[in-house]
Amino acid sequence: MAEVREVTDATFDSDVVKNDLPTLVDFWAPWCGPCRMVAPVVQELSEDYAGKVNFVKMNTDENPQVPTKFGIRSIPTLMIFRGGELKGTIVGFRPKSDLKKRIDEALV
Amino acid sequence: MDEPNPESVRKMWNYAEKFAEKSGTHLHPDRFITEGVVLGLASNIDHFGRPICPCNFYPVKDENGNWPEGLYLPREEEAKRRTWICACDEMQIYKYCHCLLFVTEEGLPITEHLPDGHEGREIYGLVKDPTPDKGRALGRVIERQQHQA
Description:
The structure holds 2 protein chains of 2 kinds.
Chain A: E1 5-6, H1 12-17, E2 23-28, H2 33-48, E3 54-59, H3 65-69, E4 77-82, E5 85-91, H4 96-107
Parallel strand pairs in A: 1-3, 2-3
Antiparallel strand pairs in A: 2-4, 4-5
Chain B: H1 6-23, E1 26-27, H2 31-48, H3 75-78, H4 89-94, E2 102-103, H5 119-124, H6 137-148
Antiparallel strand pairs in B: 1-2
Helix pairs in contact in B: 1-2
């Protein structure tokens, strides 16, 4: 079982924007309660969508540039990118079924 | 990531427990969630002097001391205001804690008092306040002022 990979301000462009696969980014922070609830769900989804969707996470405490660029306020925030474009934003903890629905919508 | 000072952690646990009781809420039943938030608040006390909410993204100042508009303020600026100091304005007005520190017994944030269109309603739906006679100190002041106007 592969861990969801961390991306940084420096690698966001190559890991997310230029990625051939649709990519879900989990913007999180170490001391954020709901982030701790979202993380295992994102991990499960990364296994469910293996080979179809790329899943990564970004520590907003250590990487302020990308969250600033995308206007993030609350965390956790999940963003789905496809072909370099932002296709969906999900703020706060959601159950897995909700997240699946939002990912599937972004894949159409 | 530095571990917060044990004294700050003790102070925040004490505050959280007391505020939950006072506001008629519960700390999140999953201790892992609550502990994360308490450590985050304690860490912000250590670094910025105030328990700033750890569940927001705060931008950083550039080399000229400026910061982007349209987002929350850098932590050192938020520490000078009270909006996101725990218990934050949203908790004091609407009894809503998006960080899930102060919640119902089942672990859900109270959304009953939120205004229409607030993201909390979209995320969690309507979560009734089980103790409407408690908490919302600032919300009650605002309501009284509106009533008198």
